[in-house]
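Re: that chain you flagged

S.,

Sorry for the slow reply, it's been a week of failed gels. I finally had a moment to sit down with the sequence you sent. For the record, here it is as I used it:
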Amino acid sequence: MYCHHCVREHDADAVYCSRCGRLLEPEKRNIQHGTEAQAAALDEWDMAKDQAGPALETKLLPERPAGKLVGLIPLVLFIGIAALLLSYYLYEAKLNDRVLKWQESARQEALAGKYEDAFKQLNKAADARPDFKPVQADLKIVEEALSLNRSITEVEQRLNSDDLDEASTLLEQVKSKLRSREEAVFGNVREQVDNLTTRVTVLQVSAEFETMENIDDLAREYNQVKSLTGDEALALRKKIVAKIADLSYAEADSLRKKKNFTAAITAAQKGLIYASDNEKLTKLYDQIVVEKKNFEQAEQQRIEQAMQMAAEEDLLNQTAAVKVKHVNAELDALGDFNVTGELLNAATRPIYSVSIEYTVHDSKGNVITTGKVDATPSYIEAGETFSFTFVVHHVQDENATVAIDHMTWYLD
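Prediction finished late last night. Pasting the structure tokens below so you have them in one place:
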């Protein structure tokens, strides 16, 4: 016979299990084929069962669970502690996840320029994990970006109040602080600074260029705004270029009228550097170039004529500076031949030390005498007349004549 609870083998007449103490129950399926002795044993079993039943209920049942519970206490304690540890781990892991999510959310907000929101997210993360250094580092960066962003707001307020000088000073301070920041979260701040720089520059140049009347000064103003973007900068550049073109036109045209074509071309070119598509200035430039060419051709002709005239004049001065206006010769009662002559300085320059060589012939053409005489005065201006006189004694021929053979002079 076997115990149905612990499967321990017993003798056929055993009533209780020697191991677990349970009441042994014979196999009923085998009783049908047993002997009468077994049937008697079965009846005895039933009687014993009826008598022992209540005692088993009150005595044996309490002892069985008490032994098991004692064995389960360590297991229960282990499971409880493990459950507590697991709960704590899961809580900490969940909190870490939330901190990382707050940090990532703050990063996205900061990159978008929403520094207030990023600051709030990082504060929550810092409160949850005060010793988490990456969050503390991000918090400092966002605080700096938030501070710069507030300064930018103040710059805008100054500009809106037309306080350009103070706005410019504050903006330079922001730029100075921003130079040491290379983090991506400052991208929005940099963009705002660039926009404000454009706005401040446009306002400054707008206030200055209106009073400028010099092309070089306007060119410097133009160079300040030529790289700026935006409608305001574009409109200002157009104004400066238009003014440069007007001043360039006025200066070039004035020089053109004075025949100073080289300077006029330079003035026009200066304006065309900035206003290359200005139709009015372009036409003036072309006109000046044509007039300069015509003038130079005419000038060349004048030069050639002048050179020719100078050559002719030089030839005249060298070969025909003195002209004889008239010569009078008279024989007096003493037989002296008195000769006087009037001369003209036909040169274009003064002459001096004029001398006349002459020959006196008798009525038959024979040479009576030759001689040389100096004219007076010694220095003669161009176009002035002067004279000479001499006497030939003992001519005795009333038909005698005098001829001027050669004259010499010096040009001043």
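What I noticed first: The first helix runs from residue 28 to 31.

Talk soon,
D.
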